[in-house]
Design brief:
Elements (H helix, E strand, L loop, with lengths): L2 E3 L3 E2 L6 E2 L4 E2 L5 H9 L3 E3 L10 H10 L10 H9 L1
Antiparallel strand pairs: 1-4, 1-5, 2-3
Helix pairs in contact: 2-3
InterPro entries: HeH/LEM_domain (IPR025856), SAP_dom_sf (IPR036361)
Protein name: HeH/LEM domain-containing protein
Length: about 80
């Protein structure tokens, strides 16, 4: 399983600075992954986007692809961007 960084942070265990869009190590301790996920600092990497994804997951996917979108875009708006 892969994780994508959503918010900049300095890892308290490794002291590495992570920026949005980069991958967070999947081999990190599970309790660390759970904590960062619960704080919305990292999220599971989305490989394929569908209607089943949340708006947040779709935005993370678009951010990783450097695709810009309006701040208040709806799920339908975001999915439409992927069709282009």
């Amino acid at each position: 399983m892969a994780y994508t960084v959503l918010q900049s942070f300095r890892d308290e265990l490794t002291h590495i600075v992570y920026k949005p869009g980069v991958e967070y190590p999947a081999d990190a301790p599970i309790d660390r992954i759970e904590k960062l996920t619960s704080l919305s600092v990292i999220a599971e990497t989305v490989e394929v986007v569908t209607e089943a994804n949340t708006v947040g997951e779709i935005k993370t996917f678009l951010d990783a692809k450097d695709i810009e979108y309006p701040t208040k875009a709806t799920k339908a708006d975001l999915l439409e961007l992927l069709e282009d």
